């Protein structure tokens, strides 16, 4: 039962994680967080802007399902501890292949979960770069999972069919009996009397998963539930008034000061030529308003109402026809990652892609990107660059 739950859940986590990597558009200038990925990025494709909620759904599922699976993973590892330390390691070539896949499977799962949880908690203690390590670890784990499933799935299905689930859920501790000896060595030769029923174990693990889900899902659902997201690193850090939503990184933490975002701020727009625009110049251009979500790789997301100038209009102003031009947005931030991000021609051409000046009818706060920030439908949060100082439009070659 635990293995089948993990099989479904881990497939969801793996697929959504790989989609998140594709959403970063690593083929565009400056976006590749894993430049040595080699063939591991074979599946990359142009990330769409529709539907606008797709990244919010996929990355939310990646983080929330992953956290929910933690009790199941721990219980599964506990249940197969004898197998992990069986000796001799292998009695045949087939068993050697299975044991090797088991080492990669268990090691890969522990590595992916530990590094992933530390990353979403913004606890960077890695002696290596998280992004390539997480990508490499994911592919190693997936290969081991496929091998393990091929070898073990028939036996797992047979084990589930050997017992009636409803009967087990009605069996208390007094009626619980140990499994008979098995050829795989998972059952103790002389088991002690049971201290927990099978339904008790399932309830304990299931209860832990429900608790993990309840303490984290609010960061993705947003609204009133966001205050319940006690496991979310951004669950209680918000702005005020119309800017009352998650702050991923503050201006002060990234070296952005109020002085350089004041009246002297100018936006450099480069394309066929180069021009500089003040905030007043931007406000005098045609403004457009859209309700768009913003979603972070850490799992939180929120929908707000953004007002600003279309990126397509700024591309035209720079002498570059939208639909053929991508853009690199550069920020005032001086430290940290993602001080710039590149967007594709398709993202620039979407009429909802904005250089946002206001949110929910009010000026952006400094921590939310004042005087101007990028908002693109269905893009990862870090590609919605804050404190934009330059937009460098480039014609994309077919």
From TrEMBL:
> Which superkingdom heads the taxonomic lineage of this protein's source?
Bacteria
- What sections of the protein cross the membrane? 60-81, 102-124, 136-153, 200-218
Keywords in alphabetical order: Membrane, Transmembrane, Transmembrane helix
Where's the Oxidoreductase molybdopterin-binding domain?
262-394
Instruction: Return the SUPFAM superfamilies for the record.
Output: Oxidoreductase molybdopterin-binding domain
Any matching Pfam family = Oxidored_molyb
Tell me yes or no: is tRNA-binding among this UniProt entry's keywords. no
Q: What is the recorded name of this protein?
A: Molybdopterin-dependent oxidoreductase
Q: Which organism is it from?
A: Nonomuraea marmarensis
């Amino acid at each position: 039962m635990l293995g089948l739950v993990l099989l479904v859940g881990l497939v969801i986590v793996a697929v959504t994680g790989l989609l998140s990597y594709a959403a970063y558009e690593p083929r565009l200038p400056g976006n590749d967080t894993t430049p040595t990925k080699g063939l591991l990025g074979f599946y990359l494709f142009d990330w769409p802007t529709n539907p606008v909620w797709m990244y919010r759904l996929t990355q939310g599922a990646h983080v929330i399902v992953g956290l929910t699976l933690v009790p199941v993973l721990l219980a599964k590892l506990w249940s197969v501890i004898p197998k992990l330390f069986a000796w001799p390691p292998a009695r045949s070539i087939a068993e050697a292949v299975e044991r090797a896949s088991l080492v990669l499977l268990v090691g890969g799962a522990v590595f992916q979960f530990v590094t992933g949880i530390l990353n979403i908690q913004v606890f960077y203690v890695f002696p290596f770069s998280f992004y390539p390590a997480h990508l490499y670890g994911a592919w190693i784990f997936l290969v081991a999972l496929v091998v393990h499933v091929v070898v073990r799935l028939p036996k797992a299905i047979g084990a589930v069919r050997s017992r009636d689930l409803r009967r087990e859920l009605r069996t208390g501790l007094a009626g619980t009996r140990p499994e008979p000896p098995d050829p795989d060595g998972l059952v103790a030769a002389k088991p002690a009397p049971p201290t927990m029923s099978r339904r008790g174990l399932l309830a304990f693990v299931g209860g832990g998963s429900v608790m993990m889900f309840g303490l984290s899902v609010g960061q993705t659902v947003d609204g009133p539930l966001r205050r319940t997201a006690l496991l979310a690193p951004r669950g209680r850090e918000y702005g005020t008034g119309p800017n009352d939503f998650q702050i991923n990184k503050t201006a002060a933490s990234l070296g952005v000061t109020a002085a350089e975002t004041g009246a002297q701020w100018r936006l450099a727009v480069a394309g066929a030529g180069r021009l500089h625009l003040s905030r007043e110049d931007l406000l005098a251009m045609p403004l457009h308003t859209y309700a768009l979500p913003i979603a972070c790789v850490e799992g939180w997301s929120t929908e707000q109402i953004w007002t600003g100038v279309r990126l397509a209009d700024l591309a035209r102003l720079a002498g570059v026809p939208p639909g053929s031009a991508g853009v690199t947005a550069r920020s005032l931030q001086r430290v940290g990652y993602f001080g710039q991000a590149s967007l594709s021609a398709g993202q620039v051409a979407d009429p909802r892609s904005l250089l946002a000046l206001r949110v929910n009818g009010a000026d952006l706060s400094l921590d939310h990107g004042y005087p101007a920030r990028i908002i693109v439908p269905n893009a990862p949060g870090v590609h919605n660059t804050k404190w934009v100082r330059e937009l460098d439009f480039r014609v994309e070659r077919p």
